[in-house]
Amino acid sequence: MGPIERSLPVDSERPTVEESVRSVRDVRVVLTALEGSPEVTVAGGRSGARKLRRVGDLVLDARGQAACVQEIVPSSKRYGLSVDGRTYRGRIIVEPHPERGLRAFNLVEIEDYVAGVVAAELVLWSAEPAELEAQAIAARTFAFYALGTLARPFLRDDALDQAYRGVPNVRGGAGAQAVTNRLELALAATRGQVLVRGGQPVDARYHAACGGRTTSHELIFGGPGAVPVDCMPCAERARSEVKGSRDPRRPLGWSTTVPAKTLQRVAAEVGIGSQIERLTPQTEDRGGRWIDVRLDGSEGSTAIAFDDFRHMVGTQRVKSAHIVRTWPAVGERVEQGLFLEGIGRGHGVGLCQEGARDYALSGWSGEQILAHYFRGARIERTQL
Asked: What is the domain count for the chain?
């Protein structure tokens, strides 16, 4: 989950959890893979398949019907609507993109949305019940916080908000039904449950792996939120990897080389010339995660958040801000590309999914997992 742009209201202006819930019966999710597409096809609607394209400021279907917004309702709630190879509950809304082409949304009930997020965020085949429950509550809370508290118009379906792929698609073998049942039980057990602090939904961030210690919400996103906590499962695995014992199925460590062309592009974007000559950490958290870095370029210098740098070069390449080694070494001139070796995955704020899994395997409940990562918050069941 990446940063969301926001202007935080003061506490007295923030809606309570019940007010947030009342304002978020349905979730409007932008289908990012279709952003700006010249054409969108939706199957399973009451009028059959609809092929839509943009004409001026209108959306035109194959029958010649034009409108500012086209809304497709499924012919059967059981089967949903099919878009771009995925199935969605609720409705599909297609409108002109602000810049070009089309923009498509899925307008879906909150609990169906949560199911889709959990299925996209976790490996369902191996997920523990407590792991599923903790993830469901965190996903629901984040949706209420972003849409209700911050009054955002929609959520993205990728890691900048929460991964979401529509209806969970569990295939393969006799175990598929057992996996589906386990997911449905976790969703039923946590239905309507939200993490609350001070009567308001918390900004319930989560990430793939912290590497041993989470970081401060304030350092990464600004404003109050989750505080740093030790994550013993990740810490123990990190120590094992340092000694040369790595689980190939769940490695914490990673390495990458950022190409010279990418560094040149970043230098131009931040206005320091044609290339980055040095990258130096300016501030670090207690866990060794880089918070701010100084970039020296051919025509100047600037300081930026390292998490912003990660997004500029690609978070799939630079997987976390916990950097353990670079080449050239920190402070030395970068001649070609920049090699980085690190540990963990994601921004490091809030719930650590790898840690949550190991805590669940050790017998912790979903409630205990959330209490560990979100200190001072409590779970409240709302009436949806």
From this structure: 2
* End position of a domain, from candidates 67, 96, 125: 96
Q: Are strands 351-352 and 206-207 parallel, antiparallel or unpaired?
A: parallel
Tokens of 24: 């978020």
Contact partners, residue 261, CB within 8 Å, separation at least 6:
none
Q: Output DSSP code: residue 149.
A: I
Within a domain: 287: yes
Q: Tell me the backbone φ, ψ of residue 265, rounded to 5 degrees.
A: -65, -45
As a whole number of angstroms, the distance between CA 39 and CA 60 comes to 10
- Domain closes at, from 96, 117, 144: 96
Length of the chain measured in residues: 384
Q: Are 3 and 161 in contact (CB under 8 A)?
A: no
Domain range for residue 50? 37-96
Position 272 in a domain: yes
pTM over 0.85: yes
Task: Using the predicted structure, report yes or no on whether residue 91 has a pLDDT greater than 50.
Answer: yes
Please give the pLDDT value at position 6: 39
259: burial class by Cβ within 10 Å (0-12, 13-18, 19+)?
A: middle
Q: What is the pLDDT of residues 45-88, one digit of tens each?
A: 888 889 999 999 999 998 889 999 999 999 888 889 999 999 99
DSSP β-ladder status, 91-96 and 193-197: unpaired
| 160 in Cβ contact with 205 (< 8 Å) | no
β-sheet bridge partners, residue 254: 342
Residue 242 covered by a domain = no
* Residue 241, in any domain of the structure: no
Cβ atoms of 149 and 200 closer than 8 Å: yes
Instruction: Using DSSP, state whether 132 is helix, strand or coil.
Output: helix
Q: In the prediction, which pLDDT does 375 show?
A: 96
